[in-house]
Design brief:
With 308 residues, the protein is mainly alpha-helical. Helix content is 79%, strand content 0%. It contains 13 helices and no strands.
Length: 308
């Protein structure tokens, strides 16, 4: 609990520092820059990325021996996204999604593990794509990318060895955890039937999020070429996965730093981040409808009224 509050405090402090250094102007400019076209584009791209997220989750869950219809996965993922962007921490929706699926399948532990592996696999693919782009295109971190690439290869080799290893039998909690993790990796993520779908879905998700951010940058007034914006975009998307306050905090801080380092200006970075945040919030609103519908069905079941 203390660690969670520390993360939230850091996110809130980041926003406070930005307001102190840049003023409220960039934030207000971001709100004014949002238009109907940008919101429509974000909502359309969100349909693509959410379906891909649900597909990835379904593939991993089936590898762990849990059935998950695609339609149910899409609705649950929309609900998860809405909770993630409206509640502190940025992971409440994922925990809720894993718990709900586990409860529906009478195996909460496996439901939570499926979500954890699905999200982890997606972030790994995102890191790989980000490193590949940053190795090729100029960015504020271009000089350190060869070392980052070597570290990534080393980590990938360790994960592959761990997945192939057969931990020795034992009754300790650590031994059981190692066996479960190795089994989940082999069956849920790295199985021959699973990893191509996981990789493809994750790549499409990253592309959709990157396109959304580029649209936000253009709406905010950024005129830099795509070859300059794309590396900054991928850096910001990595930061967006850090603990935050309803999606805000690290994203704005890293965007301000990256835009300033690239010569585009910290204020434009904050404005872009605000536009992106509003676009993401609006695109997640179908999740609110799913949440309300689920709440309305509960009294109906308690009263013995069949669901429509």
């Amino acid at each position: 609990m203390t660690r969670r509050w520390i993360h939230l405090a850091v996110a809130a402090a980041t926003l406070a520092v930005l307001v102190w250094r840049l003023g409220a102007g960039p934030f207000l400019d971001g709100l004014r820059a949002v238009d109907g076209w940008a919101l429509a584009a974000a909502s359309g791209l969100a349909v693509l990325t959410t379906v891909c997220c649900a597909w990835r989750w379904r593939v991993v869950a089936r590898g762990l021996g849990v059935d998950l219809p695609l339609g149910t996965a899409v609705a649950s993922y929309y609900r998860s996204l809405f909770l993630n962007v409206t509640l502190p921490g940025g992971v409440v929706g994922d925990v809720h999604r894993g718990f709900s699926h586990g409860r529906d399948t009478s195996d909460v532990g496996r439901g939570l593990r499926a979500v954890a592996w699905e999200r982890s696999a997606g972030q790994v693919v995102q890191v790989v794509l980000t490193v590949a782009v940053l190795l090729v295109l100029p960015s504020p971190v271009h000089a350190v990318m060869p070392l980052a690439a070597l570290a990534l290869v080393a980590v990938a080799a360790c994960v592959a060895l761990a997945a192939r290893s057969r931990p020795a039998a034992g009754r300790s909690g650590w031994a059981r955890l190692r066996r479960a993790a190795a089994s989940d990796l082999r069956d849920g993520v790295l199985a021959q039937r699973a990893w191509p779908a996981v990789a493809l879905a994750s790549a499409l998700i990253v592309a959709g999020h990157a396109a959304t951010f580029v649209i936000a940058a253009r709406s905010a007034g950024a005129t830099a070429p795509l070859s300059e914006l794309l590396p900054l975009t991928l850096l910001v998307l990595l930061a967006a996965a850090l603990p935050n306050v309803g999606g805000w905090g690290p994203r704005e801080g890293v965007t301000a730093w990256a835009f300033a380092a690239a010569g585009l200006g910290a204020s434009l970075g904050v404005t872009t981040a605000v536009v992106y945040g509003v676009m993401v919030l609006v695109a997640s609103l179908p999740g609110a409808a799913v949440l309300v519908a689920a709440e309305l069905r509960v009294p109906a079941r308690l009263q013995g009224v069949p669901d429509v």
